[in-house]
Amino acid sequence: MEQAPEDWTPVERGLWEAFRQGVVYDLAARTGERLGAPGTNQELDRADERDDVFGDTTWGPERTVRAEVIARLLLDGPAPIPGRVAALKLTGALVTGPLVLAGGTITHYVEMHDCRFANKLLMSEARAGTLRFVTCLIPRIEASRLATEGDLHLARCRVPDGIRLTDARIGTDLLLNQAVVGADRFGRSLSADGMSVHQDFEADRLESTGELSLRTARVGGRLSLRGAQLRSTPQSSTCLNAVRLTVGHTLYLTSSADGGWYGSRTYYGSGYGESPPPGAPSTPFRAYGKVRLSDARFESACLISGEFHLGAEDELSLRRIQTPELRFACRMRPTGTVSLSRARVGNLVDAPASWPAGKHLGLTGFTYEVLRPLAPFGVQERIAWLESASVDFQPESYEQLAAALRRDGADDDAREVLYARQRRRYATLPLPSRIWGHLQEATVGYGYRPGRAALWLLLAWLLGTLFFQQHPPEPLKADERPHWNAALYTLGHLLPVVDLGQNGWNPAGAGQWVAAGLVLVGWVLATTVVAGATRLLQRG
Length: 540
Prior knowledge:
The protein has eleven helices and 45 strands. It is of the alpha/beta class. It is rod-shaped and about 140 Å long.
């Protein structure tokens, strides 16, 4: 049929012709101003107010298109004019009635700008090429199991009652930049569990009120939430739920540079995937509620530098995540708990002030290969980082840190960590063990302070020498009296494997107890000193 149905309005017939030609059908008030005589700036400002999709201005019949008309064009539209490609390109329209495309096949290109939808958009189980809705007011979007060959754009849109994309398949990119999404009756703003995006999922500066649910979702490229503002609701204390998420490149929970956004009509933004320059105005990623990234995988990196406003019982869960690089560089400490239990990371890039204070850090089974701090992060600060964990004592955490320091060649720092591990371990034991631990710490530093052991060894030598100078022992054989040297005799007991020619003496009484004590002290202290000297020679 070459002509529009007779019961269609003149506005709808105009859309019919624009569809056949594949051109933009613009119903905006500003367009009407241009069609008349040249107007003033005041007249153009009034046109801007009338074109505000999210404002209170009423749009009349001259801008109204029924949803059934759009459905007719997309599902059973007319043939294009010869030499043209049919497409739906609509701007500045009020769409009345529910737009029902569920289960249908949309073969035409769809792009709608600055449109108001009076009712929800239904696209569940539909098949399409590319769908672009930009700066549109849509009460709700139902698009579970939607399959597109191209993009799905919802940039700058406002969707007060939430979006449902459960098990959807997006052929290329999904864009939600600067969108404002409210919660549905279940407290979810975006329900996208099981969704698959072949390339990038970009939601920079998204404003979400409700749970952003991406459980088991797959993103082939980047997942960007730079500058996003996520807020939980009383129905759900979680603002981001991405359990078992898989990202083929990088996750960005970072700041967004203000340049290129404010006052710009573009819905792509600028500087995608880049951090704002130091000191440049930017909007941080903010989360007001629980964030769950447990069991997620990021093939390139996971970059986190936002603000996490968590309650006392809330958690930023990074449990069991896997990524070659975790960059945790929050400018302000998270107010709740950060859990990295059983996470596996290649490079850990962080700063001392990024981690939560108090016992709000979970590090049980957390493994990492290399430490790459963004700011000076001394070994004592690292030890304090470990000891801020929510569990009282985790020896494997100290061993993991020591191993990472050794890989960087910081052997002295690694020993400092292991020394702290022993000190923390004995602090958790019963009183007798704690006393023994204090003795070891004071004398040999649990084996990690050979210099301390050498000082005690020197002191024992001096005291032993003074004692035996005042109380020389009798010879073993009465007819043999070797040359007596109190210093060599004491040293021979402290170094029992060394013969210094003073074995012909037989101490008795107090001297016997002193000699035995010197032997015991020698075995403990001398072996510690030898072990320390061996490590020094190996490094050399």
